[in-house]
Design brief:
The protein is an alpha/beta fold and 255 residues long. The radius of gyration is 17 Å and the shape is globular. The chain has helices at 20-29, 42-54, 76-83, 106-123, 135-144, 160-168, 185-191, 223-234, 238-254; strands spanning 4-9, 32-38, 58-62, 89-98, 127-132, 151-153, 172-175, 199-201. An 8-stranded parallel beta sheet has the order 1-2-3-4-5-6-7-8. The relative contact order is 0.15. Helix 2 packs parallel to helix 3 (76-83). The longest helix has 18 residues, at 106-123. It binds nickel (II) ion. Nickel (II) ion is lined by residues 8, 10, 38, 94, 204. Nickel (II) ion (NI) is lined by residues 8, 10, 38, 94, 204.
């Protein structure tokens, strides 16, 4: 059986301080092979890297989430660059624009986003994109990058048109727990439009637990439920889906 891959989790979060080892043990029992532990600010990016050195299941991404764009230190770019020299760091992110909660002013979000895209281009690393209520602006910034970067639109939810635009840029599309929710009919329809070789799956733990764990702290073991729903929606054999997602993740992050 191909191993399941959680391409986006935040095990560096405070919510896993008490029981990370048990969480990782449950992930192993559920068949989860690799987990990408994603940074949201300078200190939890550093933590993601430290954890990836300690636990072989964990790999890291380092970046500044748009929520925290206003709180970066003046040397954040150098800090991320130096963390990214670690061989366990696979990507830069998560980064992007969030006009839904708008916790940082838009112009700062965009500035910090652009700096990280430049950094990723210098380091030749893929990018992990967070975009909420800001797809048009996010796509515009990505289009301005030359040469185009490889990356993933994480926890995707958007219109078919926005999906097409990310695919056009060569991006992978990552689907999270909400695909299991009864009201996510549109997301399940959209899922069918994603080419098989561009699909990734993730938990975004501790957020967005799939059914039947909705409302609880999410963790990588629960990704099994997301795989099951996606296999059902796509009418794929679970093993074929696991092999496909593994191949995609390896191509984007480990190649
Ligand atoms: Ni995230």
């Amino acid at each position: 059986m191909a191993r399941l891959i959680d391409t986006h989790a935040h095990l560096n979060s405070r919510q896993f301080r008490e029981d990370l080892e048990q969480v990782l043990a449950r992930a192993r029992s559920a068949g989860v092979g690799m987990i990408i532990n994603v940074g949201s600010d300078e200190s939890d990016s550093e933590r993601a890297v430290m954890q990836s050195e300690e636990y072989p299941q964990l790999w890291a991404a380092v970046g500044i989430h748009p929520h925290f764009a206003a709180t970066v230190s003046p040397s954040f770019r150098n800090k991320l660059a130096s963390l990214a020299t670690n061989r366990r760091v696979l990507a830069i992110g998560e980064m992007g624009l969030d006009f839904y909660r708008e916790l940082s002013p838009r112009h700062l979000q965009e500035e910090v986003f652009r700096e990280q895209l430049e950094l990723a281009a210098e380091l030749k690393k893929p990018v992990i994109i967070h975009s909420r209520e800001a797809h048009a602006e996010t796509l515009q910034v990505l289009r301005e990058m030359r040469p185009p970067q490889s990356g993933v639109a994480h926890c995707f939810s958007g219109s078919p048109k926005e999906l097409a635009a990310f695919l056009e840029l060569g991006f992978y599309i990552s689907i999270a727990g909400p695909v299991t929710y009864p009201r996510s009919q549109e997301l399940r329809l959209l899922l069918k439009e994603i080419p098989a070789d561009r699909l990734l799956l993730e938990t975004d733990a501790p957020y967005l637990a799939p059914l039947p764990y909705r409302g609880k702290r999410n963790e990588p073991a629960f990704i099994k439920k997301t795989y099951e729903q996606v296999a059902l929606t796509l009418e794929m054999e679970p093993e074929a889906l696991a092999r496909q997602v593994q191949a995609n993740a390896v191509r984007l992050f480990w190649a």
